[in-house]
Structure formats: C-alpha cells, structure tokens
TrEMBL record, chain B:
Highest taxon of source: Bacteria
Protein's name according to its UniProt entry: Amidohydrolase
PANTHER family listed in its UniProt record: IMIDAZOLONEPROPIONASE, PROTEIN LONG AFTER FAR-RED 3
Domain Amidohydrolase: start-end pairs: 58-540
One Pfam family here: Amidohydro_3
InterPro entries: Amidohydro_3 (IPR013108), Metal-dep_hydrolase_composite (IPR011059), Metal_Hydrolase (IPR032466), YtcJ-like (IPR033932)
Classification of source organism: Bacteria, Pseudomonadati, Pseudomonadota, Alphaproteobacteria, Acetobacterales
Length: 315, 548
C-alpha cells in the first residue's frame, strides 16, 4: 500500500454560502489530474457538476451529517476508510468540508493516513460577510478557527465589497504571513493549488475564546536585528512545552525575502515569502498557557537566535 | 355495535390511568385494539358482557410508557459485549453486572474473545474510566486478553477509545506517531487511549466500521423493540435518521407485523437535502404512516454533548476552562431549515444541550413564529439541559416544549459538578421543576443507547435528582411522583403530538399498557425499583423476558 504514490488532498472549508461548491467545480474544470474523487460533507443537496466528475472517472460522495453525540463514528472517517479499501483509488481527492467544520480537524485526520499526501487547506470566505461573521457572538470563534486553518484563504464575493482595498489590507495585517487569493466567482489561478505551495502539516490551535482568554497568554517579540538561520532552527527545536502556537514574519541574516515562521508543539516550518516586500525586522507572536508561561525564557531563547547573539553573550 | 368485533375485559390489581378525571380503575374493556371503557367490572360491562382476561389480576397497569428520545442504535450496541461501570440489562433480559475495576473488564473481554473467529477484531462498549480511580486502562491491560487480535473498547461517552498493542501495531501507532489525540505515558509511549477524530480514525481503519452500522444490521430492530418491552415502553422514537429507502422499508416491514411490540416514531435528519427538498421528502414519507409507524417529526442538531465538551455554552463557559464546543449547524442554517419545516406545517425537534445552543434555537423559533405565526406547532427542544428560568419562560411564551435529559443527573451529574459546569449550573441542569413551573410542556428521556432505556428510572432521576455518588443535585428542581409519571406518558406523548391517541387510559385511545408487578403510585417504593412484567400494545400482550 505504500508503493502507490500518495493521494493528493485539497480540503475546502468555509461557511455555507461562501462559495465552496463553485470553487470545487472550478478546480474540477481546471485540474489536469485524471481521477478525482469528491467528498461533500455539507448540508443540502450535492451541487457538484456531475459531468465534470464523470468525465474524469471520478466519484462524488455526499456524506451524511451525523450526530455529534456519537461523533466517534463520523461519516468522514467512514467514507475515507471505505475509499481506501477500494481497489481503484483516486489520484486526487477534493473534500468539501461542512460549513461548521474546523478544517484543521479534518487535515489532522488526513495526515493520520499514510496513503494521503498532506492536504492543502483552502478556506473560502465571503468577503461581504467576513467581518460580521468574525464579530458574531455565536460563530465568531468558528470563523476565526477556519481562517487560522487555511493554507490559502480565498476571499470570494469581493464584487459585493465596496471598500475592497481596506478589507484586503485589514486581513493581511491581521493574519500576517497568510496567503490570500482574491476571487469573484470561485475562479482562482489553478497554479495556486499546485503542490509546491507548501501545504502544511500544521495544526492551528484554536484561538482562545474571549472567555478563556484569561487562561492563555499572548506574547509578542519584535526586533530589527535579523535572525541567524541555524540558531533559529535550534530555538524552534527547543521551544518550551507551554507554548501552544507561535508564528510570525522573520528576517534572516543575508536574505532579502522575509520568512513565514509557524510553530505548533512538535512541528514547525519556515517558508520564504517571495511575493512580499521585506518588512523592517521581525515580528513574532506566541500563545501559551498562562499558568506555565515564562516570558523571559522565551525572550532569551529568541534573543539567542539573533545574529548578534554572540556579541550580547560575550559582552 | 358491530357484532363481529370482539371485546375483552382486562382485570388488574389496579389501573393507574393518568387520566385525572378518572385516575384509578380495576377493569378496562378493549375492542379493536382500543380502550372501550375503564372503571370497575359493572361499568365496563355496560357495553355488553365479555370474557375477562385474568392474566393481569395481580398486576398493576398504567399507560404504555413513551420514550420521547432514543435511537434504534439501542438495538445495535447489544451485538457487542458491554463493559460499563453500571449494571445494564440487555434486550434478552440478561443482566450485565457493572465492572468495578480493570480486572473485571479484562475478564469479560476474555470471555467474549473466546467466542470470536481468529483474526476478527473484538469490539466492546460502555467502558467508563471515571470511576476506576486514578489509573487509566492501557494497551498492556488489553494485551492480557489478546496481544494480537485487534481489540477496541469504546467508552460510555462514545468519544474515547482504548485499544491493545495488536491494534496499534496494525494501525501504525507508535512512539513516533505525531497524531493529535494519541495519549502517551511519561516515557512517550502511546498508552492505547485514543481521544480525537484523527487518532480514532487510525484505529477504525483496523477495527472496521461495522459498529457504526450496527443500527441497520439484521436483528437490531427486534432487539430495540425487546428493550422497550422490558422497560414497559410501547412507543419509541428513533430520533435522528436520514431515513434512506432501505431504512424506511425495514421500518414498514417490521411495524406491519402485529407481533412487533412497539409504535415507532422516527425523526427525520434532513441534512442531506436542501430545506425545500427535505420538506418534500418528509411529506412523502408521511404518506406511509400507520398506527404503528408515524413519520412527520424532523430533528435538527445545533451543538454536541456536554460530557464530550462539544456542547455550546454561554458565559462562563466550561468550568474547567475547556474551549467552547462545536456547532453542528450555524444559526443561519438552523433558521432556514426550521423556517421551511415550520411553514410546511411540520413539528421540529431541535437538539440543544448547552445554554448557548438553546438560546440560538429560541431566537430562531421566535423569528420564525413572528414571520409565520402558527398554533399548536409544539416545536420541541431536545436535551435542553442548561436552560434557565428565563429560557423556559420564553419557551412557554412561544409554545415550545422541552424534553429534558434527566438521566444525565445520575450518570454524569458528579462530573458536571466538578468538571464541566461547576456547582451552580450543575444544580440547575435538566430543570424539570423550573420548566413545569414556567408552564412548559415537558418530557424526560434516556437518549438510549447513551443511557439505558428505562423511563421509570428516568422518572426516578427527575424525582430524586441524585447522582451516582449519591449527591442531590438541585433539590428544588425535584418534581412530584405524579409529575414524573406524567412526563413519561402523556408528557412525552404531547411532544410527539400523540397525546390524543396514547399516554393515558381512557375511552377511544390505543389499548397500550405497561404491565407492572408493583404500584408506581406507592410512595414507599422508589420508581426505579418498580418491576416491569411486559407490555400490552393494541390489546396484545408481550411479556418481558425474565431478568437474570
Ligand atoms: Zn439522541
């Protein structure tokens, strides 16, 4: 079972009505791969263009919305198990997640099967509603979690947004290092979906809900001094266990393009951001358990990774 | 009077009718499966002389009990061994004694393992780690049953699994596995306890997914019905089912047999279709209705469960600081499904465990009712465990019913007190007293197989509000014996819009009875100790298998 090349997975999240199905159809129309399977886990009738799938030897399977009381036997797990048991498997799998799904949970599940390549998570956001959704007292935390889960955030329905530029600037500022694509009717450049765009195996830790905020602490590290690549690697490997998530934009000594740094316990990555103008210096934020947090230890760890660390320690 | 129809008179030690106008009797005349007359022998004979059935002369009869929230899966789980902490009786009447330590679990699994063909995974359910002390069960424990054969033990919550080394080896779970939910010991070795979707997925790949199809396996419906008979239940629900054609056919075939001992009320899960199409599907299903099978309920799920930390809570959220739970429907989608079914004249049951979920449900109901006012909708909130007095007053205002999960007080009340909700909200949970005082039509339920199907036990829970450890959780929300008995008969029938037909013993209603050895109105006997001899449905007797 390991001789076969891994099945690529594109995971599409976002609220119902954001434009996920349109995007699925768009990908089906433009993806050059032959055999594509589609799993749809959202409410409502399946609206995937059946001809598009039939013409590629694929299947579209709609999953039922199961009872969370017994969430253990959820239909996605079952569908994936059944699919992997088939003699003929798709080359690529598109999963349209439920509007209430936190895509990182599904991404984790995919990563737990060696037959699958790490998934690329696209989250489709209705540009005309996202700010309202984020501020909503019932679904604000879910909207946030979905955005945090995205490898690529697709801002859809931008034709309905009067001040597009403001929204895009605000999103970029709020989610540093997040990759964005702007789309009007689910149309995006298929290049954006290609494998060399670093789908991550990272798990986005749920952002602390306002009520739980007092249990977590957010820390910020800002410096104009570039990091030393080797020392930063060492620092990432030595992150203390109370840190739940750390991310930021960093500048490495000798490199022009900034790096996107992402860390969750056990895993981390650094990606070059070619498409961005270099900011001055580095900005890192971390979220950790308040009761065990040791801000000065983290500060020391990161300071030791700076290019000038020798000068400081030998002072 | 039609001379062909046969009349039979049942004589009982006592008949508790639940009809306040005629509360007790000794005789009931039955004709055509319905109750003709209730009273003493003289009265019931006024319709003409008829043979007297003396089989129940030393029994107490009450209306057939109504379980307003359970699942056919109750018949599915019993295909597998039970390894829980509490005694539990299976549909055949066999008592599975509660297991008080890991050794007991191992011993029962060993016995089950001996009956299995080689290589077949051993599945078991109902394990409850809370009461077994600080030590958790691990793979080495299960390896004592068999190190090779894959073994998978589901916890009582159905949210967590324990597996053995054989299963972990086949699933590729080892020290290097970087998957969320794989628990580890101090040395970094996986313990065999798997907690999240991804970790459980790895185990299910090896153990197979048959357990989750158990409700559609042959025998499941019959076991479900047998469970009902031994609990004195004559009307059961199957409260969340997508109702594909095969299931509908199976339900129609089973209920068409007069020997099938329950009336079945499924609630449709519409999530596979857009609201308008789903309404059409349910309208179509309703054309199959008979007196034994009634389609027409729809169920929507808003959140998860409190014990699984997936229920949506209002401030101050979970007592132990866990993040708030998960939505199964966004408020927008809840509104669109609710609106479509409401406008088409259907009754909507909405699952809402946490108080934020019941709040969202009430907001959607209020909006729909303002847009399309309707009398007698009887929309019902299921579980409704954390609703406070204000939410119940709102429900009364809107004509919304509540079906409360009273068994939670016994099974998870201690955990709610110390972990999920804290003392204040744990004492106020499943507040049947508050609901009734606010004027809400209320029922109580087991959600079997989540907890055992046994309405008399559920009624005891609502009356006593005692946890497994003996703590009384909110004494002021206790209800009277009469209220508790009403909640498992007419109260539940009301939430199913069947109170005109079942739920009390009076002329014209279905001849459905719970046949009891003891008198449920005897104040000296706790309701949970009232013994059930069987049921009568449409005048036909089904004796419960002897419990042993
Ligand atoms: Zn249920």
């Amino acid at each position: 079972m390991t001789a076969m090349p891994p099945i690529g997975v594109t995971l599409i999240g976002g609220f119902l009505g954001a434009g996920k199905t349109t995007l699925v159809n768009h990908i089906l129309r433009h993806d050059p791969r032959r055999r594509i399977g589609v799993l749809v886990n959202d409410f409502g009738a399946i609206n995937i263009d059946a001809d598009l799938i039939a013409s590629r030897d694929g299947d579209a399977i709609r999953l039922t919305n199961g009872c969370l009381c017994c969430g253990i036997g959820d239909s996605l797990s079952r569908a994936l198990i059944d699919m992997l048991a088939q003699p003929i498997r798709p080359d690529h799998l598109l999963i349209e997640a439920s509007g209430v799904a936190e895509p990182w949970r599904i991404a984790e599940l995919i990563c737990a099967a060696p037959e699958f390549a790490p998934p690329m998570t696209l989250v489709v956001v209705d540009g005309s509603r996202i700010q309202t959704q984020l501020a909503d007292r019932y679904i604000g935390d879910l909207a946030l979690s979905q955005i945090e889960s995205a490898d690529l955030l697709i801002l859809n329905k931008m034709d309905l947004v009067p001040a597009q530029g403001d929204l895009i600037a605000w999103m970029r500022e709020t989610w540093l290092g997040k990759r964005f694509a702007i789309s009007e009717h689910g149309a995006i450049d298929p290049e954006l979906l290609s494998a060399d765009h670093n789908p991550s195996r990272f798990r986005a830790v749920r952002a602390p809900a306002p009520a739980a905020a007092d249990r977590f602490v957010g820390l910020r590290f800002v410096t104009d001094v570039p990091f030393d690549a080797g020392r930063l690697h060492a620092a990432m490997a030595a992150m203390p266990p109370w840190i739940l998530r750390l991310k930021g934009i960093v500048t490495l000594a000798g490199e022009v393009a900034p790096q996107s740094l992402q860390f969750t316990p056990g895993r981390w990555s650094m990606t070059t951001l070619h498409d961005r103008a270099a900011p001055a210096g580095s900005r890192i934020v971390a979220i950790g358990h308040r009761d065990r947090a040791d801000a000065s230890a983290l500060d020391r760890l990161l300071t030791d990774a700076l290019q000038t660390a020798d000068l400081q320690t030998s002072r | 009077m039609n001379p062909k129809t046969e009349t039979i008179i049942l004589r009982a030690r006592r008949i508790v009718t639940m009809d306040p106008a005629n509360p007790v009797a000794t005789h009931a005349a039955i004709r055509d499966g319905r109750i003709l007359s209730v009273g003493d022998l003289d009265r019931v004979r006024r319709y003409g002389d008829a043979p007297v059935d003396e089989r129940f002369a030393d029994k107490v009869l009450m209306p057939g009990l109504v379980e307003g929230h359970c699942h056919v899966m109750e018949g599915g789980v019993w295909a597998y061994p039970y390894v829980g902490y509490y005694d539990r009786v299976d549909p055949a009447g066999k008592t599975w004694p509660g297991l008080r330590d890991i050794g007991g679990v191992i011993e029962r699994l060993r016995a089950a393992e001996r009956g299995l063909p080689p290589g077949k995974p051993l599945l078991a359910w109902g394990f409850d780690p809370i009461f077994l002390g600080a030590r958790r069960m691990n793979a080495a424990d299960l390896d004592a049953v068999s190190p090779d054969r894959p073994i998978l033990v589901m916890h009582a919550s159905f949210h967590v699994l324990n597996v053995n080394s054989g299963l972990m080896a086949r699933a590729g779970i080892g020290p290097d596995t970087q998957v969320h939910g794989v628990l580890r010991d101090a040395a970094g070795q996986p313990t065999g306890e798997l907690q999240e979707m991804a970790a459980k997925f790895m185990a299910l790949r090896v153990a197979g997914t048959e357990f989750w199809r158990a409700a559609t396996m042959p025998g499941a419906l019959d076991r479900f019905a047998a469970s009902a008979v031994r609990a004195g239940v004559t009307t059961v629900t199957d409260l969340y089912n997508e109702l594909p054609d095969e299931t509908v056919d199976a339900y129609r075939t089973a209920t068409a047999d007069p020997a099938f001992p329950v009336r079945l009320v499924p609630a449709y899960n519409p999530s596979g279709l857009a609201p308008e199409q789903a309404v059409q599907r349910l309208a179509e299903l309703r054309t199959h209705n008979t007196e034994r099978l009634r389609f027409g309920l729809v169920k929507l799920m808003t959140d998860g469960s409190i014990q699984g930390f997936t229920a949506r809570l209002k401030w101050p959220h979970y007592f132990n600081g866990r993040p708030n739970g998960l939505w199964n429907l966004t408020p927008d989608m809840l509104y669109s499904y609710l609106s479509a079914f409401h406008r088409a004249g259907f009754q909507v049951h909405t699952h809402a465990n946490g108080d934020e979920a019941s709040e969202v449900t009430l907001e959607a109901l209020e909006r729909v009712l303002a847009e399309a006012p309707r009398f007698g909708h009887r929309h019902t909130i299921q579980h409704c465990q954390m609703a406070d007095a204000a939410q119940f007053r709102k429900m009364a205002e809107l004509g919304v019913c509540a079906n409360l999960f009273s068994n939670h007080i016994y099974y998870w009340g201690d955990a709610h007190y110390t972990e999920t909700m804290g003392p204040d909200r744990a004492e106020a949970m499943d507040a049947v007293g508050t609901a009734l005082a606010a004027g809400v039509a209320a029922a109580i339920h087991s959600d079997a197989p989540i907890t055992p199907l046994a309405p008399l036990f559920t009624a005891w829970c609502a009356m006593e509000r005692r946890t497994a450890s003996g703590r009384v959780l909110g004494a002021n929300n206790r209800i009277s014996r009469q209220q508790a008995l009403a909640a498992i008969t007419l109260g539940a029938a009301y939430t199913l819009k069947l109170d005109h037909d079942i739920g009390s013993i009076q002329t014209g209603k279905q001849a459905d009875f719970a046949v009891l050895e003891d008198d449920p109105t005897d104040d000296s006997l706790p309701l949970k100790e009232v013994r059930v001899a069987g049921t009568i449905i449409g005048g036909r007797y089904h004796s419960a298998p002897a419990t042993g």
